[in-house]
Amino acid sequence: MSGVLEFLSPSGARDEGGFHPVARSATERLYRAAEATFAERDGWLVPVAVPGEADHLSRVGIADLSHLRKLELRPAPPADLGLDGVTTYRLSPRRALVLYPQTVAAQVEESAAGAELVVDASAAYTVLALSGRDARALLARLTHLHRFPSGGEVAHVAAHVLPAGGGFRILVAQELGHYVGEVALDCAEALGGGLVGVDALPAEEQP
């Protein structure tokens, strides 16, 4: 990679002097209040299970996938990277965001080697997954966007919405993540849904 910026990358942190750094999502307080079970994965504290999540998913569940790695590439690649579990989203004709799990990090970084600039933006975004039969109904309560992937207002702030299996993923700046999570949860509860852990998501929507 000809230009790499890693200041937003949790993977840049190191154990030192008894200190063990762990990244935390902006929505952590919401999951704590729901008595979620957390596990450390890929340097993040991830909510993996939530009481009542099976009932929530029968309507609509909200999972936190902020631990997905995120690279911004400039210029945007001419096509998707073609790797399983990897999502390439064009922010503009010259910029693309690549979301992927840690398990394929080496392949993604190799595929991105030709980019002029690579920014590890892993800590810059909160990622919320909407899953279940009413995922589209929940999304309609949050945004006027109706074609996906797309960027625009979600809960009255700038965000991006990507399709994922039978559900959706909302990407929003991490400083707005708690707010968007709170609004989405309020709307989900009105539909009979609620928070769910990452491990409860259907296989095709897993990170």
Describe this protein's structure.
The protein contains five helices and 14 strands. The strands form three sheets. A six-stranded mixed β-sheet has the order 11-12-13-10-5-14. It has a five-stranded mixed β-sheet with strand order 1-9-6-8-7, with no helix packed on it. Strands 2-4-3 form a three-stranded mixed β-sheet. The longest helix is centred in the last third of the chain and has 14 residues. The chain is globular and about 45 Å long.
Topology:
Elements: E1 4-5, E2 23-24, H1 28-33, E3 37-41, E4 44-49, H2 53-57, E5 61-64, E6 69-74, E7 87-92, E8 95-100, H3 105-111, E9 117-120, E10 125-131, H4 135-142, E11 150-154, E12 157-164, E13 167-173, H5 177-190, E14 194-195
Parallel strand pairs: 1-9, 2-4, 5-14
Antiparallel strand pairs: 3-4, 5-10, 6-8, 6-9, 7-8, 10-13, 11-12, 12-13
Q: What is shown here, in short?
A:
The chain has 207 residues and is an alpha+beta fold.
Our measurement of the CA-to-CA distance between the termini, rounded to an integer number of angstroms, reads 25 Å
Question: Runs with pLDDT <50, length 5+?
Answer: 1-8
Describe the largest sheet: 6 strands, mixed
User: Overall 3D geometry?
Assistant: globular
Give, in order, the helices and strands: EEHEEHEEEEHEEHEEEHE
Number of helices: 5
Radius of gyration, Cα only, in angstroms?
Answer: 17 Å
Q: How many runs of DSSP E, i.e. beta strands?
A: 14
Nearest-integer average pLDDT = 90
Helix content: 10-25%
